[in-house]
Amino acid sequence: MIPLQKPKLAIIGTVGLPAQYGGFESLVEQLVLHLADHYEMTIYCSGKFYPKSERLEHWNGAKLKYIPLNANGFQSIPYDMISIIHAAFRSDLLLILGVSGCILLPFVKFFTKKRCFVNIDGIEWKRNKWSGIIKTFLRYSEIQAVEIAETVITDNEVIRKYLKATYDYDSYLIEYGGDQAFPVAVADTDKITYPFLAGRYTFMVCRIEPENHIHILTEAMSQQEELPLVIVGNWNNSEYGRNLREEYGHLPHFYLLDPIYEKQALNLLRSNCYLYLHGHSAGGTNPSLVEAMNLALPILAYDVGYNRETTEDEAFYFSTASGLLNIIQDMTPKKAKKAADQMKAIAARRYTWEVIARKYGNMMR
Fold first, then answer.
1. Residue 355: helix, strand or coil by DSSP?
2. Tell me: the pLDDT tens digits for 292-306?
3. CA 249 – CA 218 distance, rounded (Å)
4. Ramachandran class of 256: left when φ > 0, alpha when ψ lies in -120 to 50, beta otherwise
5. Angle of CA points 204, 206, 209, to nearest 5°
6. Which neighbouring-strand residues pair with 232?
7. Per residue in 307-356, pLDDT tens?
8. d(CA 55, CA 17)
């Protein structure tokens, strides 16, 4: 008997594998781990992020294809477009993460008839970091995704409602898993490297961007000294980050750390925090948030619909520095424990990779 050939699936729009960057990379990693038996997979990777000496040809059975551009920032547009063109003539299915390259979808559909699935991420064209020209381009790309793609995936009910109201389009809701995050016990040697591990502290991991409201967190936490503030992020990548680090980095209870990509080290810091701070206001279901929920951490989240929907209105919410400070000052270990248990229960029901991968597999049948 001749074995059935597996469909060829290309995944486009991430930094690549092995996952060392953000939420989409974790998504791709988990899709490979859960769906590799069903598809012949090719993952497009940034040649700028992975030096030639560190590049793999395959990862857990998936083929890795490198494009010599950055996967983020302005270069994400040609990066995604080149990846789409390459995949259109070599794969049966294209899973495109983000809308940067979706301006090409009419041509892909016309010349190849390939099935394209697009996760639009957030409402990307509304983000403040883009100039007016790029916002217009991303809005047009979003329109092409809605009109041409086989299916558009949204990761949050708020974004699903936006597509319905704007385009009368019923998207396929698939969130993110977070159960790849794992708790790490604190060793005595860890307390030497990170003295704050000896007691209670607040923690956040994020890109240092205005829409993540680090300025609110730092302003609030500078007005108290009982709880250290630990933030892991790319401080040197923007004037915003450099200015905040210069203004607050000298405070003895502030630990403004550079990016940590090693999972054991990152999980050590976040799994042992007393309170998890989440300042994100854009995107949708944020991966770092559902990871914190899976770690059973009490969440203090910026008050936007995305975060309330993800946490089912069971977290603590702030929109100003004074509001955040009031929540922290009113917090008790009993309240923190109750909130942590609620976050874990929601995550176990909604945000596991087994559930998420099954939804992707069902969608692409």
1. helix
2. 999 999 999 999 999
3. 10
4. beta
5. 120
6. 205, 257
7. 999 999 999 999 999 999 999 999 999 999 999 999 999 999 999 999 99
8. 9
Q: Cβ(146)–Cβ(162) under 8 Å?
A: no
Q: What is the pLDDT of residue 128?
A: 73
The predicted structure's pLDDT at residue 21: 64
Distance set, CA 335 to CA 41, 274, 317, 342 (Å): 45, 11, 14, 11
Rounded distance between C-alpha atoms, residue 306 and residue 304, angstroms = 6
pLDDT of residue 1: 46
pLDDT of residue 127: 74
Percent helix, strand, coil in the chain, to 5, is 45, 15, 35
Q: Which of 256, 275, 254, 270 is nearest to 327 (CA)?
A: 275
Residue 229 has what pLDDT? 98
**Strand locations in the chain (E):** 8-12, 40-46, 58-59, 62-67, 93-97, 115-119, 151-154, 172-173, 202-205, 229-232, 254-257, 275-278, 299-302, 316-318
Q: Which CATH fold would you assign to the domain 188-350?
A: Rossmann fold (3.40.50)
Sequence spans of domains, the chain = 8-173, 188-350
Report pLDDT digits (tens) over 154-192.
999 999 999 999 999 999 999 999 999 999 999 999 999
**What SS3 state is found at 302?**
strand
Res 74: pLDDT:
80
Q: What is the rounded (10 degree) CA torsion for 73, 74, 78, 80?
A: 30
8-173 CATH pick, 1.10.260.40, 3.40.50.720, 3.40.50.2000, 3.40.50.150: 3.40.50.2000
List Cβ neighbours of 215 (8 Å cut-off, separation of 6 or more).
240, 244
Q: Spell out, as residue ranges, where the chain has pLDDT lower than 70.
A: 1-4, 21-22
Contact 14, 97 (CB under 8 A): yes
Compute the distance between CA of residue 233 and CA of residue 336 in angstroms, rounded to an integer.
Answer: 25
Token digits of residue 191: 């307390």
How far is the C-alpha of 360 from the C-alpha of 358, rounded, in Å? 5
Sheet with 40-46, side-by-side order of all strands: 58-59, 62-67, 40-46, 8-12, 93-97, 115-119, 151-154, 172-173
